[in-house]
Amino acid sequence: MDDTTYDVVILGLGPVGCTAAILLAHHGLRVAAIERDEEVYRLPRAVNLDGEIIRALQPVGLADAVNALMQPLRPGERAGFANSKREFLFGNTQKDFGVNGWKPINMFDQPELEGFLRSTALAQDNVHAFIGYEATQFTDHGDGVAVAAQKNDGFESTDQLPRQVKGAYLLACDGASSFTRKTLNIGWHNLGYNHDWLVVDVITKPGHTLGLDTLQVCSPDRITTYVATKDPYRRWEFKLNEGETWEEMLDEKNIRTLIDEWTPRDTYEIRRAAMYQFHAATADTWRVGRVFIAGDAAHQTPPFLGQGMNAGMRDVINICWKLPMILNGQADDGLLDTYQAERDAHAHDLVEWAVSIGQLMDHLAAVEAAQRAGLEPPETPEKLRSAGYGQGREQPPLRAGVLIAEQVSQDGVTGHLLSQPLLRASASTQDRRLDDLLGPGFAIVGKTQADLALSPTSADIAAALDARLVSLEHLETSRGHIDRAFNFTDALIVRPDRCVFGHVDDEHTLDDLMAALAEKLCLRY
Questions:
Q1: Phi-psi bin for 363: left (phi > 0), alpha (psi -120 to 50), beta?
Q2: What is the Cα–Cα distance from 498 to 496, expressed in whole angstroms?
């Protein structure tokens, strides 16, 4: 590979690809991005951004700007399950502050957010974007990847693509129909949910009668999801009943008939109507040599948890702290094997959870149908009893990879994101989020300064990682709470993505944890 080789070539500049470009550029890497579409897609698709993702943008200084694009909390907002009369059965009241230090569930308009992310990515000095080009071939040479692309007809490009774009690694964020995944003949692990749905987005007008609750309406007549997205927008997802066709469901008269029971026809404008077959699947392989897939290329989920785009963001948040360690010579390439080990199981958990919610909706509809007929309702399967919202932690834990695996199932802390409260020093009135104290990389957090004592070898490991040592003893919580881990441990190690690597317990001293971290990172020090 020659001097013009980039560190990473990214295919696709949707929200996931843009986030990857921003994060990698922040680490000082040279990034080439190839994007087929000249402009951001003008219609909505994803509508929810987790507070966890906003949190991940803190180290690159974008959290406040992205948060400003989110819908502020509206009084009385809830998310949950309802019967055919749209009477609330169970669920959660929305909060304006969660364990990640931001509002947990954030409604947004994708064209607006994606436009911001793309313009931010393209503004990075070390991101070179080839807009209006589509990849046609790539070759892994063992020491790097070469990508060939062609210009799309009718697109004006400000930059001429060279014969090949070369990179040390290729990160494919090229969507559900991924050219990369198909070229590599990567198969799917199907999780068993394939149903046709009509998705309708509207712009509301004065006088509408649409509520603020996001509802899974479990009606025997038609299962429906209603989402109070960012004002002035709203969304419905209507599950097709047996015998209904895509063509008839897309007829505007039929669409308006479906919405009639929600609000008068003169109180909204249809923004988008599209048919989808919701899928639940994860890719069999996420890495082939120097090529990685992420986002919809690696997993597809029903939308009931609003986790499609969020899961893709987690993919690149994960790999974008590992690639710099390899390219900067801190760690061995073996570290990148943990990408699939961590992300596949985590994505599988989320997709399976979304499938369970779909199955719970079907079950609740069957219960109401039995009640209407005066029959004994079906018993709720044990698997579905915990499928609703509100399971404690906001996301499943990582279960393998760069962490102390034996602690994951024991304590509910290792593998999870560390809680991020607002803190202030006892002598100060200025609030700061915990991550701002932890810094952008690894951190060792202790109850007191004494709990952070390291052996010379451990100190060398910490120095090689540029890890911060943070004591909590002089800090007061002004909002949120210190992680529950500190109810039973004196110190723990946090990864750059804010997942807990491990904590001190009867079997692990802090020095033991540091040695295990160096081994799992394939660290050079």
A1: alpha
A2: 5
| Mean pLDDT taken over the chain | 92
Tokens of 27: 């680490």
At the topology level of CATH, where does 6-72+106-189+281-348 sit? Answer: FAD/NAD(P)-binding domain (3.50.50)
Of 44, 86, 485, the C-alpha closest to 272 is: 44
DSSP states along 388-405: SS--SSSSPPP-SSSS-H
* Residues 79 and 44: beta-carbon distance below 8 Å: no
pLDDT band of 342, cuts 50, 70, 90: very high
- Alpha-carbon distance of 190 to 188, in angstroms, equals 6
- The per-residue pLDDT for 387 is 66
Residue 2: pLDDT above 50?
no
Encode pLDDT of 435-474 as tens digits. Answer: 999 999 999 999 999 999 999 999 999 999 999 999 999 8
Provide the residue ranges of all domains of the chain, joining segments of one domain with +: 6-72+106-189+281-348, 405-520
What are the CA-CA distances from residue 191 to residues 60, 303, 350, 356 (Å)?
35, 14, 11, 10
Average pLDDT of span 299-303: 91
In this structure, CATH architecture of domain 405-520: 3-Layer(aba) Sandwich (3.40)
Q: Is 295 left (phi over 0), alpha (psi -120 to 50) or beta?
A: left
In this model, does residue 224 exceed pLDDT 90? yes
**Tokens representing residue 441 in the block:** 């990389």
C-alpha distances (whole Å) from 75 to each of 78, 95, 449 are 9, 10, 42
Phi, psi of 504 (to 5 degrees): -70, 130
What mean pLDDT is predicted for residues 485-511?
97
